[in-house]
Design brief:
single chain; 216 residues; mainly beta; 4-stranded antiparallel sheet; globular
């Protein structure tokens, strides 16, 4: 039976297609079938199946190169990737992709479509026209460091495709077992931009949430 791959997510889905997607993009999916080239007597086929690491115990792994903190929990089988430095360090603001600028990704959440409200972003709320407060989004971020159970980065928040002048947000993620704590420090915000919020989505309490002042 021929393998048919198209552009999308869990099947054809045009809203998820990005500007750099092309006719060759689906071929990346073929990497998942490379194991079928192993011979019949290979241990991959002959040895009993073993549980994956995330199925036996909670774990937190720091990857300093990309600025990632990988957290897995055995109770729910979820793997979360906290991102602190792998997105667009050299990108101009108008090319920063809100999907890749998320504070975290997980195997239990899906991607956002172009033009949708950025989710899993923290930033100052800015009054625009008659709106009470519009959430800025996380711009290209640079790593500040990482270690056992933690990673940190800094970014300049974006309103649309424009940086807020003089404002910086330093973010730290702490993870241990199934617990995750995020700490954000906003510097340079004028009085009208000192209210902050985080937008969550895809099954993670959708909508805007105002963090506890103890975490600011």
């Amino acid at each position: 039976m021929p393998l048919e791959c198209g552009l999308g997510w869990h099947g054809p889905y045009e809203p998820i297609v990005q500007g750099y997607s092309g006719t060759a993009s689906p071929y990346w999916a073929s990497k998942g079938f490379v194991g079928l080239l192993l011979p019949p007597d290979h241990p991959e086929w002959t040895q009993p199946e073993r549980p994956a690491p995330y199925e036996t115990a909670d774990a937190v792994t720091t990857l300093p190169g990309p600025g990632w903190l990988v957290q897995s929990t055995a109770a729910d089988g979820l793997v979360r990737l906290h991102s602190h430095g792998s997105h667009g360090q050299a990108l101009p603001p108008d090319q920063a992709d809100p999907l890749y600028a998320r504070l975290a990704h997980s195997r239990g959440t899906g991607p956002t479509t172009p033009g949708a409200e950025p989710d899993n972003h923290f930033g100052p709320l800015v009054q625009v026209a008659e709106e009470e407060g519009q959430l800025t989004r996380r711009g290209p971020h640079s790593p500040l460091g990482s270690g056992p159970g933690w990673a940190a980065s800094v970014h300049r928040p974006l309103l649309g495709n424009t940086e807020l002048p003089g404002v910086r947000v330093t973010s730290v993620t702490l993870a241990r077992g199934a617990i995750e704590v995020r700490i954000h420090r906003v510097v340079g915000a004028p009085p009208g931009q000192r209210r902050t919020a985080v937008r969550l989505g895809h099954g993670l309490a959708p909508g805007l949430r105002t963090p506890s002042p103890a975490l600011l």
